[in-house]
Design brief:
about 200 residues; alpha+beta; 5-stranded antiparallel β-sheet; 6 helices
């Protein structure tokens, strides 16, 4: 009986260790995640699928809460829960519009994945997009910042030619805040979101 008990204990211990290690072993790399989702999104856009279908994939790709908090910066702490909720909802529309436009722009490009490196905000997946229509056109560098979240991996920033989407939004919001405060920020965001725009102002 003691041998059986010991064997059962060892089996349980090995199984527990395997389960603990499994997420790290089986989880897709940040690069694999970006590649798979970009391919899925590109195909949907190429096929002219409805925005609602594309948005469902965006919801699996982007972390709107982190994007919103980073874009609002120091002003986030001063906002009520209701204000944060509306801001996040509006920003998610703007970000989806922006992402969708970029996808359409890069349909005529070959995208090469250049590896991943550690960044301040997460894993940075580096890509180079080269035009297939104009060989003289300079290639574009597009980096995706990926963070592991409880719900899975999510993109928390897109950096095109060194220009951060989050930083650009934050700069715009700060400028609007100085002129008209947070109500003006929401007003402009509502107007942009309703018109299908992607910018803050």
């Amino acid at each position: 009986a003691p041998v059986t008990t010991r064997r059962s204990f060892l089996t349980a211990a090995v199984l527990s260790l395997a389960l603990a290690v499994a997420p790290a072993v089986w989880a897709a790399s940040a690069e694999d995640f970006v590649k798979a989702k970009q391919t899925e999104l590109t195909e949907l856009v190429k096929q002219g699928r409805p925005d609602t279908e594309v948005d469902k994939v965006f919801d699996q790709v982007l972390d709107y809460r982190i994007l919103a908090e980073a874009a609002l910066g120091d002003h986030w702490a001063d906002r009520s829960d209701a204000e944060r909720q509306e801001f996040t909802q509006l920003l998610s529309k703007l970000v989806r519009n922006s992402y969708r436009k970029n996808l359409k722009k890069t349909l005529g490009y070959d995208v090469a994945y250049k590896g991943t490196e550690k960044g301040k905000e997460g894993e940075v997946v580096r890509t180079i997009a080269t035009s297939t229509k104009d060989a003289r056109e300079e290639p574009l560098s597009i980096d995706y910042v990926v963070r592991a979240e409880p719900a899975g991996q999510r993109i928390v920033d897109v950096v095109t030619e060194g220009s951060s989407m989050v930083a650009n939004y934050r700069s715009s919001f700060n400028r609007i805040m100085k002129k008209g405060g947070f109500p003006e920020v929401l007003k402009r965001m509502r107007k942009k979101a309703d018109s299908g725009g992607s910018g803050a102002d």
